[in-house]
Structure formats: C-alpha cells, structure tokens
Amino acid sequence: MTVFQKEFSLSPKPRGFHLVTKEILQQVPEITEIKSGIMQVFIQHTSAGLTINENADPTVREDFETFFNRTVPEDMSLYKHTYEGADDMTSHIKSSLLGSSVSLPVTNGRLNLGTWQGIYLCEHRNYGGSRKIVVTLMGN
Amino acid sequence: MTVFQKEFSLSPKPRGFHLVTKEILQQVPEITEIKSGIMQVFIQHTSAGLTINENADPTVREDFETFFNRTVPEDMSLYKHTYEGADDMTSHIKSSLLGSSVSLPVTNGRLNLGTWQGIYLCEHRNYGGSRKIVVTLMGN
Amino acid sequence: MTVFQKEFSLSPKPRGFHLVTKEILQQVPEITEIKSGIMQVFIQHTSAGLTINENADPTVREDFETFFNRTVPEDMSLYKHTYEGADDMTSHIKSSLLGSSVSLPVTNGRLNLGTWQGIYLCEHRNYGGSRKIVVTLMGN
C-alpha cells in the first residue's frame, strides 16, 4: 500500500473558475506508482473551493461565475459577516456549495477522469492570492 | 490492504433523480471482502452527478427535480455555453452543485449507510444516455 | 496500512450550523497513529449534512442559516414530500447541496486543515435529535 502526500500552493488566480488539473498533476509525479487507488485534493481555505467540470470550452467557467454571483448575491444587507467586503460572506457560502475537496479515481498511474472532466479552482474572492493545497494519493 | 476498482456503465435513465444503490452494488460483489474501509463512486461526466438522499418515497426525487430546475433556470439568455440546448449549461452547473462522487463507509462487507440513505444518479440532460462509473473500494 | 473506523452520535443540536471539529476528534484518538492519510466523516441521515467552513466568527454560521433558508424556501406549495412539515423536503435538499460527508487530509497524527477551517454539522430540521456519524481513518 502506498500513501503519498504533498502540500503546495497554486499560483494566484483572479476571481473566477480556473482549470488546474495540470498544475496539480505537475506536483505529484508519484501518481505513476499507483496502479489502483484514489487521489484526494483538498484546499486549506474557506473562501475558495474545488470542483470537477468541463475541461474544454472556457465559456463554461464564465457561466459558472455568472450563475454563482446570481445565486449568492453580494448584497451586504443579507449577511452579518461582511468585515472584508461584499465578497467575504458570499465566498464562504460558495465554498461550501462547491466543496473543499475532490476525490478522484487513479488507474494505471493516471487520473481516471472522463474525457471532458478537469479540476477547477473556484476563486471566490476578488483578491484571493495563492491557495494552499494538500494532495493525498492512496492505493496499490 | 485491499484495493478493488471497477469501471462500468449504468443503464440509461430519463432526466431526473434515480436510486441506483442496487445497480452499483451488483457490480462490486468484492465489497464483502472488506471489513473496514471506504467505497468511492465516481461519475465520468460533467452533465450528471451523484448524491446521497432518501431511499424510500419517490416524491423526494420528484421534488429534487423541481427544486433544481427552479434554482438553475433553463433561461438561455443567462448563459454562453448553450450549444447543445437549454439543458446544456444548466447540467454542468447542477453537476457541480451536487458533486461528481460520493464516498461511503464500508463495514463488515456492506455499505454502512443510514436506514433511509441511498445513492442517487442525478441525470440532468434530457437525453443523457448511459453513464460511466468508476467504483474504488479500499480497506482491510 | 492502518484502517480505523468508529460509529458514534453527536449530541443533539438546534437547527442551524454548528462547529463540531472537537466533538468528532474526541471520538478518534487513534488519529495520532496516522502519519499520512485521510479521515472520512460520514453522516447517516438525509436531513442533515456536513461541510467545512470558517471556524472563528459565529456570524458565518448564522449567515449560512439565512442563506440556505432563502435559497431553499419553506414553501410547502413547491414540494410534494412535506409529510413531516415545512422543514421536511427542504432538509433533504439542503443535505444534498452541502453533502453527507467530508474527506480531510491527516498529517503527522493530526487533521491537516487550514488555519480557519472547521467541520460544521448542518442541522436542517427543527427537531433533528442526535445524529449518527461514521468516521473512517486510513493511512500509514
């Protein structure tokens, strides 16, 4: 049984949804040693999230930003926790709607995703900076 | 340590929410070999999802469809990514709101769910076809 | 490879969002034996959920309650599954929006969370009672 774990930071991204599959995989070449197992990707923040979605057309990521801004409005009269601005509490809510981790199958040394799947960093803050990630690989 | 992994397809389902616990467990009889561990169920698509919810009353699944259609409206003026119709971008959004995988405890060779819990396939497309699944079982 | 699993109940909580990181960790002192791995926390209910969010300011938890009540309205005319009252179907929906489990990295015998992260019990029912949890620890 192999367990491999690594902590690293993603480069800072502007607010929005960003495809980060390659940036994550570059950090864990040890994935090639796992024939069958899982990869957990965890983000150590409460104002950004991770999700799996379409890896080709950038308008999907734009439409995500539109939808989540519409569904979680930056109306400060709705929230108490707004010390850091209108994008403070809304970022916490979005991070729980989308989730703090993704868990993916690993097969024959590679992520076993569908053809159109990729990992998104969901950056909800206007100025989020670099984001810390913990990847855990487990398998045989 | 046992790691067991299997890829298979679920039979095609109409748009809506479907209880698939039995259809999944039929594919992985090896679960009986795991005394203590986890089962990850991953869907290799970005327009369908997986979630855990009530396994008895079918009106729960109907109400899910009602709620998600109301919350993620099929109004093509809201989205750019609508090449495949009004259910295209909304399906991507719903799949990230509900998630691409579920991770469940396994105890004494069985899923250790609550009495009322089952696994839902969340089919967001009008004509989604069969959906590919990867199950990973890990434990002792 | 270590696999450790424990079932227990959380003390009953009023409707709302509650920080339960300590209450969970008290149940699994075996976490100190894991140098590198993951902890899965699973809730055996379909009307309550688990998520990761801000562990300091209680107004974040209040704003979560406000947001989810606004987004999943207790309007019984919208739903069929309302046998147990206006908080019945809405609790099922909220539990799938937020999720039934959280999966966290474990490093050097401790949860490897960000500074501001904690585990929330999301109690969606008016009178939910105690909630059953299954924790699975896996790693080396």
Oligomeric state: homotrimer
Uncertain stretches of chain A: none
Choose one word for the global shape of chain A: elongated
Q: Biggest interface: chains and residue counts? A: A-B, 36 and 31 residues
Work out the strand percent of chain A. Answer: 35-45%
Name the helicity range of chain A. 10-25%
N/C terminus separation of chain A: 5 Å
Strands ordered across the widest β-sheet of chain A:
1-8-3-5-6
Which structural class do you get from the secondary structure elements of chain A? Answer: alpha+beta
C-alpha Rg of chain A, in Å?
16 Å
* Averaged pLDDT of chain A: 98
Number of strands of chain A: 8
The largest pleated sheet of chain A is described as:
5 strands, antiparallel
The arrangement of helices and strands of chain A along the chain is: EEHEEHHEEEE
Count of DSSP H/I helices of chain A = 3
How would you describe this structure to a colleague?
The structure is a homotrimer of 140-residue chains. Helices cover 21% and strands 38% of the residues of chain A. Chain A is of the alpha+beta class and 140 residues long. Chain A is elongated and about 50 Å long. The N and C termini of chain A lie close together (5 Å). Chains in contact: A-B, A-C, B-C. Chains A and B meet through strand 3, strand 4, helix 2 and strand 5 of A and strand 1, strand 3, helix 3 and strand 8 of B.
